[in-house]
Amino acid sequence: MKDVTKKRHRPLTESEAAYRCGYAEGRRFGGCQAVMARVEGFKLPLRDIKVLYIPQGFDAIDAGVIGALKQSVRECIVGSPAAMLQEAAQHRPDVVLVMNGLHVFPADHLEQVNGIRGLGIKTAVWFVDDPYFTEDTLEICRHYDVVFTHEEATVAFYHQHGASRVIYLPLAVNPEMFQPRRAEPQHQYDVCFIGTGFWNRIALFDELAPFLAGKKVFIAGGLWNRLKRSDLLGRFLHEGWIDPNATVDYYNGAKIVINVHRTDKSGEDNRNVHQIEGRSINPRTYEISACGTMQITDLRADLPLYYRPGYDIETFASASELRYKIQYYLENEDKRLAIAMRGLITTMSRHTFARRMSQLLEHL
Q1: Which residue has the higher pLDDT, 196 or 42?
Q2: Which of 15, 157, 196, 318 is the most buried (most CB within 10 A)?
């Protein structure tokens, strides 16, 4: 009679588990190298203009923009928020490009912008935190000649409130920073999330806690003390800032990286009393995929313009759907890697700062 007793698999030894992890990582990284060899380089057209760039102090974006500008204009000067009027008067650029105009900018920011325009120099700002600070950007937008925003929903809003020229320009990735790396054992996890513990993210992870408790999970960022289920997730938490270089390591080491956009509701860590809807994807969308890692993100309206859900990215609309997809892709390595590799080639072929700067400069 045939023995139908279910086979019991013995636990892997430490060396066997290490071998499996090493083999899986070698397979992923080898696939990434093959994909990167297929990506055609994008040569920026050189424009005969001088740009004074004013950074916001967030290297993941600033470094990508500066690198792309230096390849594409006659001269790129990097200034500072506190002295941009003085620097504009000294260098006489054709255009002053300001990143965001928020957070690190001084109280006389707009007076400086008006002074630059008084010198006959064109000014442009690129809002990359929309729509979460519209109470502030509403005033800022009126002072610039050209307003770029990564959030499609704010274009009409700025037009209605006095901005003369508003252009939707999505964000991108700096491939010199976010790229495939060989992941060391200390960075290897089943599931990774890096970001601030905004309330909508807290609610999601509280609901997922019993499921994630049995996985190898890495969660990092500020405000995660808000969690109710720290009894289950506390050992996974790494409170505080994770710098971009370490973020790349963790993205590369994770089997799955979760991306959750912050809520657009006013009063929930936002300054969005105008209730502008968030429709556009965040920079993390590009950065995760640029590392050759499987990404599962919540839905944003313009996501299908840049990625194909189920092909080069995965999406979820509820905690139960996210739970199911995490389990499914952890158990189906081939499908997980296929989506990750397609996401990598989409990102590196279409969504780098070099390509975005080419679009931006066409408008200037």
Answers
A1: 196
A2: 157
